[in-house]
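Quick one: Na(+)/H(+) antiporter NhaA from Microbacterium ginsengisoli, structure tokens please.
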Amino acid sequence: MPPLTLECPVHVLRSARLPALLLLLAAIAGLVVAATPAGPGVIAARDAHLVLAGIDLSVGHWITDGLLALFFFVVAVELRHELTVGSLRSPRAVLVPAIAALGGVVVPIALYLVIANGTPSASGWPIPTATDIAFALGVLAVVGRGLPSGVRVFLLALAILDDIVGIVLIAVVFTADIDFVALAAALALTVAFGALSLLLRGRARVPVAVLMVWVAIAVWVLVHESGVHATIAGVLLGLAIAPGAGARARHALEPWVNVIVLPLFAFASALMPIPQVSPAAFAPAFWGTVLALPVGKFVGVIAFGSLAMALFSRGSRPLAFGDLAAAGALSGIGFTVSLLMSELAFVGAADLRDQAILGVLGGSAISLLAAVVLVSLRARRYRRVREAAA
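--- reply ---
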């Protein structure tokens, strides 16, 4: 009998399945708690202000602006890997998923604006553009066994490119007055952070790592003070860190991000009472989001992806229509970044923010169910083809 080890629990904490499950459970828990008698007290605790390092934020904003920067750091490290040595390193390999991802951004925006144009809800147009990479990978891990590597690479590329779009929109659209001095100082310290990461070896490893943590905190503070959303600090640091150091940092942070950061963010975002009104009374912020995520993403990815393959695949069709449909359904799972965009788009408009969040949860749930069905059907088909050929 082999000896028992502690490797399995750690492996589970880093698995692709766990974040998706915990995100879903945390969001459900937030909605349930908000509906109980304890809900108002928990919401008040989330909205209570906490001053750290001279920065006054609510507990909820410490989660969305502070802790979530760790998630964006991990994502940025993965983005850099995929863009340099991974599946997105070749322009030809990235062309079709890039055009499909473009469709998954343009069509949801158009559908949202058709519904919300001319209303206060119109400022939420970026919300349905994002894909939750944690959920997408979780669905692939749970029901995608048997998919060919080409299909997996396409789905991964689509999710990653959507993440890039979400990061750019957060940095550009949701930035008002910029303090360029603070931003320049943040960029200078980011360069210093990257240079320090090259020194993480030998006896100097521990003091250099401690110094890097302090530099990273300073970058976060400066980005926050510059007027750019503070989570962009995580993106800057993740892109700046040396590849080897970044891989080690991602390996160390991933369990904490999966088990604490993302579920806590999902719980805090979903912690709101569901409006006791008829569906007709919901604002366009709800209807635009709940329709643009599952419908707009699905249609956009299929239409633009089919066009890209017709134009650039040189007589071969790398993906079947069913594969594109599965990708379109997966891309409609907005969740993490879409929830964050809901917070940013409707600052000072709590009612619209809450309805947009409900739209994100509803639209993502519809996309999740569709993705589970379509991905599992495609995976089953490929397994049968492989078995018949064996």
